[in-house]
C-alpha cells in the first residue's frame, strides 16, 4: 500500500508517517515534506520519482500529474480501471495526507500583498484531496491532523480504515476545500472593493466554541467567527473573569457595543434583552456610569454594561453591588479588576479598540425559514447638518445636544422605539411596541416610575421612525417634553408640526429612519 504525504502544516506528521511506515505502507512525498521525513529517518520516495517529472515553476507544479491522479482515482473494483493502470505503469495510491498552503494565515498577516496571498492559493493540494475524496471507497484521505489518530487506530486494530470513516473523511475534505475556496473568493471580493451583494452567498465562519445552549436551554448552539481581523468586536474580546459567555450574552453584548460605538465622549451603555435600558455620556467615565445606572436601576439587574474608557475602582465597586452578566471595557484599573474578580459569576471582558466601527459595507444577515435576508449594516451617523427644524420654535443648544444623543440611542432600540433623554442621559425608553404611541407612553411611564414623577419634564424625545399621527406629540406635551427628533416623512407630518407649534414644542426632522427588528 502507498500513502502520499504533502503537508504545509507539519504538526504530528513525523510520528504519523513513522507509524504508517511501521505498518508496511510506502510513503511518497513532495519537496519540503520529503525533506522533513527524510531527516527523521523515514524512507520516503519523492513524488518526482513516481511521476518521472521534476517539481517545477517554484513548486507550482509538484503533484499535478496523471501518475498521481490516476493512482488516486482508479476504482479498485473495476477491472477495466486496474487494467489501464497496469498498462500505464501506474500504481494505486491508498492514502492521501494533505493539508493546504496557509492561505488564511497569510491574509491575516499585517500588510500582506495581493501577490503573496495569491501565491498561497494551493492548486495541487485541493486537486489531490478532491481526487482521493471522490474515490473514497478505495482511498482514505486525511486533511486534518486531528484525524491521524483515528486512522492509525483503525489500521492497527482492523488492518484497514472502515468505509464509514473513509466516508467521514471524504465529507470533511469537501467541507474543507469549499471553505478554502470561499475564503479566497471573499478575500478577492474585498481586494476589488466590490460592495455589490453577490448572486450566490457563501459564508465561511469558523467555530470558536460550542455553547451549552442557545437562546433557551433546549436549543443547540455554537459561536462562529468571521475569518479576518475584527477590531472592536466581541469575537476579539479577552475574557478576564467569569463563566463562559452564553448565546444571549454574546448577542446582547454585541448590540450594546454597536450602540457604544456611536459615542466618542466617555459613555456607558447598559443593555438587557437586546435593548438599551440606560445610557449616559459625560465629561468623565464615572459620571457617565452614574447616569447609565440611575437611568434604570431595575432593568440593569442581570444586564450587560459596556464602557468606552478605563473602568475605575469606584465604578467596579458600584457595579459589584448589583448583579451584572457581562462588563466590557477597553481597560480596567488594577483595583477595579480585583473588585470585579471578587464576583465569580460576572463575565469581565477587555476589548481594546472598542471604538472601532464595523466596515460600513458589512452584511447584516437574518435567517428566515427557507432563506436569508441580507442588507448592509445601519452604519450612517447622524450629523447636525442633516437636521431640519420644522417648528416655529428653534431648539436650544442643549436641546439639540440631547436630541442627537437620544437619536443615537433610539437607533439601537427595537422598533417601534422611543427614547427620552435629558443632560445626555436616557431617562425613559419604550422598546419594541407594535404601535408608536405605546412606545411613547412607555418611555414617559419609565421615567416616572424609575426616576421621578417629573423626570420627563424638560427632556427631549427621539423616535426611530416618523409619527403616523399627532398623538405622540400629545403624549410628549403631557410629559413636559420640550423637543422632538424624528425622521419625518409621514403624510400627516403637518398635524404633528401644528400640534408642536400649539404647545411650543420644538421638532426636528432627520430624514433618516432607523427601524431595528
Ligand atoms: O503549488 S501547488 O499548487 N502545486 C502542486 O502541484 C502541489 N502539490 C502539493 N501546491 C501543491 N502541493 C501543496 O504543497 C500541498 O497541498 C502542501 O500544502 C504543500 C507541501 O509542500 P512541501 O512538501 O514542499 O512542503
UniProtKB/TrEMBL annotation:
<dbReference type="InterPro" id="IPR016193">
    <property type="entry name" value="Cytidine_deaminase-like"/>
</dbReference>
<dbReference type="InterPro" id="IPR036914">
    <property type="entry name" value="MGS-like_dom_sf"/>
</dbReference>
<dbReference type="Pfam" id="PF02142">
    <property type="entry name" value="MGS"/>
</dbReference>
<keyword id="KW-0378">Hydrolase</keyword>
<dbReference type="InterPro" id="IPR011607">
    <property type="entry name" value="MGS-like_dom"/>
</dbReference>
<dbReference type="GO" id="GO:0004643">
    <property type="term" value="F:phosphoribosylaminoimidazolecarboxamide formyltransferase activity"/>
</dbReference>
<comment type="similarity">
    <text>Belongs to the PurH family.</text>
</comment>
<dbReference type="GO" id="GO:0006189">
    <property type="term" value="P:'de novo' IMP biosynthetic process"/>
</dbReference>
<dbReference type="Pfam" id="PF01808">
    <property type="entry name" value="AICARFT_IMPCHas"/>
</dbReference>
<dbReference type="GO" id="GO:0003937">
    <property type="term" value="F:IMP cyclohydrolase activity"/>
</dbReference>
<protein>
    <recommendedName>
        <fullName>Bifunctional purine biosynthesis protein PurH</fullName>
        <ecNumber>2.1.2.3</ecNumber>
        <ecNumber>3.5.4.10</ecNumber>
    </recommendedName>
</protein>
<feature type="domain" description="MGS-like">
    <location>
        <begin position="1"/>
        <end position="143"/>
    </location>
</feature>
<comment type="pathway">
    <text>Purine metabolism; IMP biosynthesis via de novo pathway; IMP from 5-formamido-1-(5-phospho-D-ribosyl)imidazole-4-carboxamide: step 1/1.</text>
</comment>
<dbReference type="InterPro" id="IPR024051">
    <property type="entry name" value="AICAR_Tfase_dup_dom_sf"/>
</dbReference>
<keyword id="KW-0808">Transferase</keyword>
<keyword id="KW-0658">Purine biosynthesis</keyword>
<comment type="pathway">
    <text>Purine metabolism; IMP biosynthesis via de novo pathway; 5-formamido-1-(5-phospho-D-ribosyl)imidazole-4-carboxamide from 5-amino-1-(5-phospho-D-ribosyl)imidazole-4-carboxamide (10-formyl THF route): step 1/1.</text>
</comment>
<dbReference type="InterPro" id="IPR002695">
    <property type="entry name" value="PurH-like"/>
</dbReference>
<dbReference type="GO" id="GO:0005829">
    <property type="term" value="C:cytosol"/>
</dbReference>
<keyword id="KW-0511">Multifunctional enzyme</keyword>
Amino acid at each position: 500500500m502507498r500513502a502520499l504525504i504533502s503537508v504545509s502544516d507539519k504538526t504530528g506528521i513525523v510520528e504519523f508517517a513513522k507509524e504508517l511506515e511501521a505498518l508496511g505502507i510506502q510513503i511518497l512525498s513532495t519537496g519540503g515534506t520529503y525533506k522533513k521525513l527524510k531527516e527523521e529517518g523515514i524512507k520516503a520516495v519523492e513524488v518526482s520519482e513516481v511521476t518521472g517529472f521534476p517539481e517545477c515553476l517554484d513548486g507550482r507544479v509538484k503533484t499535478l500529474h496523471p501518475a498521481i491522479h490516476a493512482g488516486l482515482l482508479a476504482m479498485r473494483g473495476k477491472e477495466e480501471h486496474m487494467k489501464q493502470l497496469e498498462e500505464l505503469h501506474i500504481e494505486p495510491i491508498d492514502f492521501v495526507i494533505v493539508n493546504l498552503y496557509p492561505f488564511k494565515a497569510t491574509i491575516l498577516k499585517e500588510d500582506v500583498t495581493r501577490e503573496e496571498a495569491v501565491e498561497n492559493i494551493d492548486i495541487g493540494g485541493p486537486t489531490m484531496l478532491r481526487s482521493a475524496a471522490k474515490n473514497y471507497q478505495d482511498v482514505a484521505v486525511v486533511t486534518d491532523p486531528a484525524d491521524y489518530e483515528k486512522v492509525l487506530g483503525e489500521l492497527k486494530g482492523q488492518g484497514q480504515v472502515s468505509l464509514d470513516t473513509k466516508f467521514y473523511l471524504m465529507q470533511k475534505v469537501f467541507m474543507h476545500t469549499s471553505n478554502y475556496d470561499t475564503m479566497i473568493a471573499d478575500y478577492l471580493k474585498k481586494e476589488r472593493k466590490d460592495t455589490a451583494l453577490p448572486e450566490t452567498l457563501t459564508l465561511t465562519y469558523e467555530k470558536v466554541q460550542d455553547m451549552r445552549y442557545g437562546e433557551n436551554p433546549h436549543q443547540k448552539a455554537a459561536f462562529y467567527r468571521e475569518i479576518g481581523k475584527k477590531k472592536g468586536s466581541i469575537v476579539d474580546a479577552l475574557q478576564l473573569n467569569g463563566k463562559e459567555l452564553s448565546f444571549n450574552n454574546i448577542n446582547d453584548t454585541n448590540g450594546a457595543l454597536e450602540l457604544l460605538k456611536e459615542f466618542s465622549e466617555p459613555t456607558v451603555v447598559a443593555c438587557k434583552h437586546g435593548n438599551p435600558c440606560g445610557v449616559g455620556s459625560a465629561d468623565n467615565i464615572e459620571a457617565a456610569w452614574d447616569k447609565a445606572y440611575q437611568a434604570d436601576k431595575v432593568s440593569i439587574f442581570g444586564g450587560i454594561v459596556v464602557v468606552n474608557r478605563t473602568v475605575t475602582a469606584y465604578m467596579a465597586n458600584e457595579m459589584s453591588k448589583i448583579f451584572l452578566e457581562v462588563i466590557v471595557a477597553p481597560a480596567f484599573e488594577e483595583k477595579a479588576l480585583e473588585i470585579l474578580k471578587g464576583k465569580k459569576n460576572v463575565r469581565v471582558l477587555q476589548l481594546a479598540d472598542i471604538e472601532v466601527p464595523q466596515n460600513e459595507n458589512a452584511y447584516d444577515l437574518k435567517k428566515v425559514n427557507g432563506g436569508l435576508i441580507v442588507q448592509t449594516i445601519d452604519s450612517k451617523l447622524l450629523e447636525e447638518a442633516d437636521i431640519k427644524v420644522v417648528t416655529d420654535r428653534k431648539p436650544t443648544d442643549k436641546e439639540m445636544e440631547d436630541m442627537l444623543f437620544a437619536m443615537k440611542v433610539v437607533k439601537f432600540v427595537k422598533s417601534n422605539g422611543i427614547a427620552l433623554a435629558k443632560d445626555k442621559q436616557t431617562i425613559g425608553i419604550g422598546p419594541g411596541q407594535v404601535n408608536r404611541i405605546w412606545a411613547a407612553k412607555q418611555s414617559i411611564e419609565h421615567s416616572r416610575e424609575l426616576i421621578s414623577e417629573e423626570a420627563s419634564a424638560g427632556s427631549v424625545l427621539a423616535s426611530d421612525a416618523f409619527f403616523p399621527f399627532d398623538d405622540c406629540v400629545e403624549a410628549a406635551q403631557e410629559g413636559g417634553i420640550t423637543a422632538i427628533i424624528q425622521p419625518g416623512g409621514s403624510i400627516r407630518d403637518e398635524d404633528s408640526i401644528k400640534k408642536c407649534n400649539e404647545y411650543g414644542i420644538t421638532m426636528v426632522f432627520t430624514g433618516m429612519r432607523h427601524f431595528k427588528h
